Structures are given as C-alpha cells and as structure tokens.
Amino acid sequence: MPEKRSKYDTDPLDPDFVRRTEEMSGKTGEVGGEQQTVPLRDDPSLSEPTRRFDEQVSDSYPSVFVPPVYKAPPRPQAFGGFGVGSEPHQPPATAVPPGPSSPYNPQTPPPAAPSSRKVTKLRLSEKAATALPYAPFYIGLVIGIIWLLVVPRHETRTRFHAAQGLALQLAILVGSFIFGVVRGITDSGLGGFLFGLAAFVFLLVSMWRVWHGRPHHVPLLDDATAWLDDHFKPMK
C-alpha cells in the first residue's frame, strides 16, 4: 500500500515531486482560466540611491572624515545686571545732596559768601544770622528755633544754618545727657569733660567758618536738618 504524502512534502527522491509542483504552480497562477504572472514588488529601501554615512550623522556628533567649519565667536555685549543685551550698568552717584534746603549742593555751583545785607524780618546781616545758630552754651539752640519760626523760606542760606545749628545743638545736648548718666554710674566725669570740650571747639570752628563764608556742611545731620526745616514753618 503506497504511503500517503502531504503537499508540503518536498522530498526530491519522490518521483511525483515534479508533477505535483507543476500542478500546484498551475493552480495558483491560473486566474479566470488563464495563467497569469504576478510581478514581484520592489522594495523601496533597495531602490534608494546610496547615501554617505557622514551625511546621516547630526551636527552634534561631527565625523572625523569631515573637516570642521570655523565659526566666529559672538561679539561681547554689555551686561546690565538683568541679562545680556540690557542697558549698560550705571554706577551709583557718589555725591549725595546735603538736603533740599542746603545751599551747598554739589550739583550746583558754589554759592557766594554771605553778605552784609539785612535778612528779611531780621535786623541782622546775613553773616551774623548764619553764624549765631552755632553759638555755644546752648545759645544757638534758642536762636535756631527763633530763626526757623521767623525767617521766610526764600532765605535759603539762613534757614539752612538755623536748622543745621539747631540739629547740632540737640545732638550735643543728647550726648551731654548720656555722659551725665555714665558719670553717675561710674563716678568718673572724664568722658563728659572731653565731650563738652570737643563740642565747644567744634561750635567755635563752625561759627568762624560760616562767618567767613566757608562751606560748612555736616552730612550726619542731613536728615535732622531737612526735618527741622520742613516742620518749623515761618510765622506770617
């Protein structure tokens, strides 16, 4: 009895192998009673032109076979503190105006020396009116208050020295009080004596400078000077 074989049996020793193969190819190739040849599809990847390997590599991984392209370095830009390309940094102004009422503003030309003209509402010359607020023994303290209450605001020089002299006299008064407390605790008045002597000399120097028209400005008293000039309004 002959052995049964399947159509997938491709034993070349089988004598019916050629016949079965032709029958199978004839059945698959016949469409509508006629034998047709089905063309094979071309693989698009095989028909593409040959490309260079260095063209497929991105710029971030340059090939050793491609010479590098020189790129000019970027031009430096001004740095403004908030990023590149902003406005150039402007250095802060080193000179600070003494105050709104100071005649010794460094941004303006220096004022002329005080003259012998009479100050408005005072029967004193400008030289005397600007120097008296620096009188020692707290005399200038009372004069400074009177000048700020009497002299109008257009008398800029007189009001400025009245306010600065008053602020200086108040600072000396506070310093004397502190040294008095220290003397009561330590039973030593050397510190208070030296402070009073230094304050007396400074007041005399201030009077001499203002009398001779020298610029006299105490930067530590700017805030107090401006506050006193603003709050002491001249009486009408």
Would you give an account of this structure?
- This protein has a domain at 126-231.
- The chain contains eight helices and two strands, in the order H-E-E-H-H-H-H-H-H-H.
- It has helices spanning 17-29, 44-47, 53-56, 126-131, 139-150, 156-186, 190-211, 222-231; strands spanning 30-31, 34-35.
- It has a two-stranded antiparallel ribbon.
- Strand 1 and strand 2 form a beta hairpin.
- The radius of gyration is 52 Å and the shape is rod-shaped.
User: Alpha-carbon distance between the termini?
Assistant: 147 Å
Radius of gyration based on Cα positions: 52 Å
The main sheet comes to:
2 strands, antiparallel
Count of helical regions? 8
Number of DSSP strands?
A: 2
* Low confidence ranges: 79-86
Estimated helix fraction: 40-55%
Strand order of the largest sheet: 1-2
